[in-house]
Write a structure and sequence with these properties.
Rossmann fold, hydrolase, Glyco_hydro_3_AS, binds alpha-D-glucopyranose, 2 domains, TIM Barrel, globular, alpha/beta
Length: 611
């Protein structure tokens, strides 16, 4: 007689029954292996079949090969899945990647504005749509889990991750959490808050990160210490999380930071008492990349301590990512010695299995090749272009009242396009694009700002591109005067600690380039940056118009749509635009002393003087 399929393999059974049945069949070694997430470069049949490791990830930029297609990604993930399904109990892996502004690890994918630009739109439906489209392009590559959205409330722009934040006030971040419903699909009416949800195979598991207080790190020091009362931590940094739980977010990532000196990765109070018990989160908590290794520093690199401290605090899955044998050895030893109770292991594995059953991965473990054509498709790029338009913040338009400088004329005789960021896809995409910290030049398919300008102006317009003009080149060029100049300046891409800066002047000598040009040619300045930069008052007076374009991604056309008047500006500042870094940290909550160059919420329309 054919043996009956075990209950956990029966999709008609309730999720919780499948979780319990499968858990009851697992050995301690298999349970421990499910709690490990390893990097793709060490994923082997030995790890996934013999040990039954639970999850694999791609670090930022870690792809099958440079320029790998979605099909090559899907081949890689599917091969790993076959190894996992060959394990004793056939538990599929879930594969994670940072798709934080589109599927930014994938060459040719649609790259959306980074979160700071989306925060300027204050458009929750746009965020949801972006989540939907990102999910399609992620699933096209065979990946089921994205480590997004970042819910950090950036309180100090000196932090290298401010561009990953929707804004400096929790209300802005809360509004944009609608991306979770785009990524995962919207749960039905009455879905229990905190219980993971995934609509189907065209959605991806989302990850609310980094719990909690990452954006409040003191002086913007990455992986630093957030010093505040519990009331402030809850009101400012924790408030976007319930918005995600109401949407059934499946996973939460612990923060590298500490709260009043206690590392989040070992905080039983915040991860178990608050996140799991008080807020009722029933999905899985994953550590950050080598997040538990950071716990070792004060403990003389005693990795066993790190494992015990993080697991007992309530972290369920450890992003190891390489030395997983050591992790498994220590964890099993800790359970056998009683330092980590088996009840904690069972709670962690239940949560991991719950997310896997909810995701449908047991029924559909492999990629859907019918999605391959959606990667970077026209419809998605049009959505990204619309997002760019809505993210732009017009900060100045005309030197005199009632004499707006924008929109620019499309039929001008001769125009100058200058600046380090005028023709650089990599710069306009910023960090977390193709490589972890981004890159320069044509790093992926897209339209640079210069290319968009050339497309927007009339045939009779002469477009002169001078990235870094000298006074003499300008003089030579002026034989035939320029109607106007578009000068594009900003920051080079960065990620995490690589972006921590105490001085926030315009890099690449941008100030001098601007001053030289604006001194003789009517100039509109575009600032490509993940945060406000210092703008000297004298320079501000010299230029005719100023636009914050943030990190717009691949669709530079969204910028010229507004510059040339095809649509109006709508964006408003999601962060305070400081006058000087000596003012930092600065928020509107400080009352009368709040003295920014441009306040949070500021943004002009082309034809109005003030919003
Ligand atoms: C990084 C980041 C986190 C990211 C993870 C995986 O260090 O802190 O946001 O999701 O590692 O790439």
């Amino acid at each position: 007689m054919a043996t009956e399929a075990p209950l956990y393999k029966d999709p008609t059974q309730p999720v919780e029954a499948r979780v319990k049945d499968l858990l009851s069949r697992m050995t301690l070694q298999e349970k421990a292996a499910q709690m490990a997430q390893i990097e793709r470069r060490v994923a082997t049949p030995a790890a996934l079949t013999n040990l039954a490791i639970g999850s694999v990830l791609s670090a930022g930029g870690s792809s099958p090969r440079d320029g790998a297609t979605a099909e090559e990604w899907a081949d890689m993930v599917d091969e790993m899945q076959r190894w996992a399904l060959a394990s004793r109990l056939g538990i599929p892996i879930i594969y994670g990647s940072d798709a934080v502004h589109g599927h930014n690890n994938l060459f040719g994918a649609t790259i959306f504005p980074h979160n700071v630009g989306l925060g300027a739109t204050r458009d929750r439906e746009l965020a949801r749509r972006i989540g939907e489209v990102t999910a399609l392009e992620v699933r096209a590559s065979g990946i089921q889990w994205t480590f997004a959205p970042c819910l950090a409330v950036c309180r100090d722009p000196r932090w290298g991750r401010c561009y990953e934040c929707y804004g400096e006030e929790p209300e802005i971040v809360q509004m944009m959490t609608s991306i979770v419903s785009g990524l995962q699909g919207s749960p039905p009416e009455g879905h229990p808050s905190g219980y993971p949800f995934l609509a189907g195979q065209r959605n991806v598991i989302a990850c609310a990160k980094h719990f909690v207080g990452d954006g409040g790190t003191h002086k913007g020091i990455n992986e630093g210490n957030t010093i505040c009362s519990y009331e402030e931590l809850e009101r400012i940094h924790m408030s976007p999380y319930p918005d995600c739980f109401n949407q059934g977010v499946c996973t939460v990532m612990a923060s590298y930071t500490s709260w009043n000196g206690e590392p989040l990765h070992s905080s039983h109070f915040l991860i178990t008492d608050v996140l799991k018990d008080k807020l009722g989160f029933k999905g899985l908590v994953v550590s950050d990349w080598e997040g538990i290794d950071r716990l070792c520093k004060p403990h003389g690199s005693n990795y066993r301590y790190c494992v015990a401290a993080s697991i007992n605090a309530g972290v369920d899955m450890i992003m190891v990512p390489f030395r997983y044998e050591k992790f498994l050895e220590d964890l099993i030893s800790l359970v056998e010695s009683g330092e980590v109770p088996i009840s904690r292991i069972d709670d962690a594995v239940e949560r991991i299995l719950r997310v896997k059953f909810v995701s449908g991965i047991f029924e559909q473990p492999f990629s859907d090749r019918s999605l391959l054509d959606v990667v970077g498709c026209k419809e998605h790029r049009l959505l990204a272009r619309d997002a760019v338009r809505k993210s732009l913040v017009l900060l100045k338009n005309g030197k005199e009242a009632r004499q707006p400088f924008l929109p620019l004329k499309k039929n001008a005789k001769k125009i100058l396009v200058a600046g380090s960021h005028a023709d650089n896809i990599g710069y306009q995409c910023g960090g977390w694009t193709i490589a972890w910290y981004g890159g320069s030049g044509r790093i992926t398919a897209g339209t640079s700002i210069l290319e968009a300008i050339r497309e927007a102006v009339g045939e009779e317009t002469e477009v002169v591109h001078e990235p870094n003009p000298t006074a003499s080149t300008l003089q030579q060029q002026q034989k035939e005067p320029f109607s106007y100049a578009i000068v594009v300046v900003g920051e080079a891409p960065y990620a995490e600690m690589l972006g921590d800066r105490t001085g926030l002047s315009i890099p690449f000598n941008g100030h001098d380039t601007l001053s030289l040009i604006a001194g003789t040619i009517p100039t509109v300045t575009l600032v490509v940056s993940g945060r406000p930069l210092v703008l000297e008052a004298q320079l501000l007076n010299q230029i005719e118009a100023l636009v914050a374009v943030w990190l717009p991604g691949t669709e530079g056309g969204g910028i010229t749509d507004c510059l040339f008047g095809d649509c109006d500006f709508h964006g408003v500042l999601p962060v305070s635009w400081f006058r000087s870094v000596d003012q930092l940290p600065m928020h509107s909550s400080i009352g009368a002393d709040y003295d920014p160059l441009f306040p949070i919420g500021f943004g002009l329309r082309m034809f109005d003087k003030k919003l």
